[in-house]
Design brief:
The chain is built from eight helices and eleven strands. By secondary structure, it is α/β, with parallel strands linked by helices. The longest helix has 15 residues, at 46-60.
Length: 228
């Protein structure tokens, strides 16, 4: 069975109604993103950072997977599909995709500040004073600006095995995720689904589908199913 690897970004989640930093001008209640998405911001004002992610978690419960998410599930009928996502939401899981790698963490999980291996499911709020068994304050299980991306090596390993590589809703400017395109095998087609063409060098195996995720992904999935 051929392998399709899909890299998804904020654009596919935005079409479900989730707010994105880029769309909001990089501000939250007047605060720069770094203040709510960095170790320095958490150290300076942990209560504010926790409130930011509590609001994101609450909003996530109000939205549903869209046609782009659902089409990727359909693709599993004929291909092995691996989704590598920059998104911290659980919309791919809720849509029904089987193999999902979260590069930047998961909003529905929390971890200890003193033991990164202590990770638990988190559906509700995280408050100051919520601690792990080791006494460490709990924080969102999110990769913040300036932190290592521990799953990137696994993502590279998956990308190296791609028969088809699809990029959906990401600007391809945030590294290290954007660099995954460089690991796609030379013979493997690359499809970029985005209403705005990301800044990537044209190459023989690259095709742009200048559509939103909810339009372009179902179209591409139908094509690939017909070719399978």
């Amino acid at each position: 069975m051929k392998r399709v690897v899909v890299l998804t970004g904020a654009g596919i989640s935005a079409e479900s109604g989730l707010k994105t930093f880029r769309g909001a001008g990089g501000l939250w209640e007047g605060h720069p993103v770094q203040e709510v998405a960095s170790p320095q911001g958490f150290a300076a004002n942990p209560s504010m950072v926790l409130r930011f992610y509590n609001e994101r978690r609450a909003q996530l419960k109000e939205v549903e997977p869209n046609d782009g998410h659902l089409a990727l599930v359909e693709l599993e009928k004929a291909y092995q599909v691996d989704i590598i996502t920059q998104n911290v939401d659980n919309l791919h899981e809720r849509a029904g995709s089987s193999h999902i790698l979260h590069l930047h963490g998961e909003l529905t999980k929390a971890r200890s500040v003193t033991d990164e291996s202590y990770v638990v499911e988190c559906e509700g709020d995280i408050e100051m004073g919520d601690t792990a068994p080791d006494g460490g304050q709990m924080r969102p299980h999110i990769v913040w600006f300036g932190e290592a991306v521990p799953m990137i090596e696994k993502a590279v390993e998956i990308t190296l095995q791609a028969d088809f590589f699809i990029v959906v809703g990401t600007s391809l400017v945030v590294y290290p995720a954007a660099g995954l395109v460089d690991f796609v095998p030379q013979h493997s087609p690359i499809f970029i689904v985005d209403p705005h063409k990301p800044p990537i060098q044209p190459q023989p195996n690259l095709e742009f589908i200048v559509e939103s995720a909810t339009v372009g992904v179902p179209q591409l999935v139908q094509r690939l199913l017909e070719e399978a």
